[in-house]
Amino acid sequence: MVFQSLTLFARSRGPDEFWRKRKIFKLAAHFVGRKRNCYSIAIRYVHRALRYATMSRKLKKADMLNLWNTRLTAACAEHDINLRTFKEALMRNNILIDRKTLVDLAIWEPRSFKSLTQLAIARGKQDGLNDVMYVKTPPGVITRGMLK
Amino acid sequence: MGNVSSKNFVPRSRKFVRRNQKSFFQHKHDRKYLTSIMSAVKRAQQWATFARTWHLFDATWQNPFDSAQVIIKHLMGLHKPIYHPMNDCGDHVVVMNSRDIALPGDEWRKRVYFHHTTYPGGASWTLAWELHNKNPTLVIKKAVYNGMDGNLQRRHTMQRLHVFPDDKIPEEILKNISNQIRYLRPVPTRLDHISPEEVENYPKIVDYPKQYILR
């Protein structure tokens, strides 16, 4: 290609116009009104949407953590132990399960979760954690982490 | 069909092409269908998980603003491990004896409820004791309403709260109740509710002198 001037060079940039715009319109397909049909408007809103998407990748993690905390608080309260004590006792027992998995257990395997809380309560009693000193547990609850 | 001329041959859209039996069952959505068959035995458990429970809360001698936090927890379903803001898993709460709530300190005299009719000069301020005299359910209702975040769900959540000034609860509500929320503070026994003979026989340390005037 021969560029006779700088202006003509600037105009001949990039891939074919149709395909370049089509990429943007694909991203704007779910918008409403002119921002999905008119390129100059669509590009503004696509840029904004991509900016939001970037920010939300971090927000999503925070949101999920909040949700797991809320759900775990509820699940622990069902078994007379609070979340802080529960996590602390699990750590002391060397039971390393993250919040997401604990929530999944609480929802889909309530009996497994209950046995985890009982381990935590037993360990808390052994170590003299005030929160669980007077919570009733069946006798003989023991795990490897509780042996000294 | 062998000699279809290219002139009047119209290819049918993919959507309308009939799938044979084999490919039908290999479709990706059929996994969901099969799973639902497997979990059919757990239907009752599923219903129990998502059923709305009715809780009873006795407001006698309870601080309505502390009680509101507990009531909100049950109304919004925050006490369930399946909680999600978009998941409609809240329960019903029936509050009884709302006439006998106990406000802390001098709140009866100092707490003010604001109302505006939107007309000029339509503002009015009602003291808590006046409001309670007019309607003994409103203090606790407002405590619950104001304790929640203001969003579209709040008014629907409030529909699940049933407040009664005394212990006369309609039969159709009473028959739903299957749980009682534990009180936040024990109800003290009043001296005038104890029988005179019990008071008489209670062990004493000293007797009042004869000329001591009791008021």
Automatic annotation (TrEMBL), chain A:
<keyword id="KW-0689">Ribosomal protein</keyword>
<dbReference type="GO" id="GO:0005840">
    <property type="term" value="C:ribosome"/>
</dbReference>
<dbReference type="Pfam" id="PF00453">
    <property type="entry name" value="Ribosomal_L20"/>
</dbReference>
<dbReference type="GO" id="GO:0006412">
    <property type="term" value="P:translation"/>
</dbReference>
<dbReference type="GO" id="GO:0003735">
    <property type="term" value="F:structural constituent of ribosome"/>
</dbReference>
<keyword id="KW-0687">Ribonucleoprotein</keyword>
<protein>
    <recommendedName>
        <fullName>Large ribosomal subunit protein bL20m</fullName>
    </recommendedName>
</protein>
<dbReference type="GO" id="GO:0019843">
    <property type="term" value="F:rRNA binding"/>
</dbReference>
<dbReference type="InterPro" id="IPR035566">
    <property type="entry name" value="Ribosomal_protein_bL20_C"/>
</dbReference>
<dbReference type="InterPro" id="IPR005813">
    <property type="entry name" value="Ribosomal_bL20"/>
</dbReference>
<dbReference type="GO" id="GO:1990904">
    <property type="term" value="C:ribonucleoprotein complex"/>
</dbReference>
<comment type="similarity">
    <text>Belongs to the bacterial ribosomal protein bL20 family.</text>
</comment>
From TrEMBL, chain B:
<keyword id="KW-0687">Ribonucleoprotein</keyword>
<dbReference type="InterPro" id="IPR036899">
    <property type="entry name" value="Ribosomal_uL13_sf"/>
</dbReference>
<protein>
    <submittedName>
        <fullName>39S ribosomal protein L13, mitochondrial</fullName>
    </submittedName>
</protein>
<dbReference type="GO" id="GO:0005840">
    <property type="term" value="C:ribosome"/>
</dbReference>
<keyword id="KW-0689">Ribosomal protein</keyword>
<dbReference type="InterPro" id="IPR005822">
    <property type="entry name" value="Ribosomal_uL13"/>
</dbReference>
<dbReference type="Pfam" id="PF00572">
    <property type="entry name" value="Ribosomal_L13"/>
</dbReference>
<comment type="similarity">
    <text>Belongs to the universal ribosomal protein uL13 family.</text>
</comment>
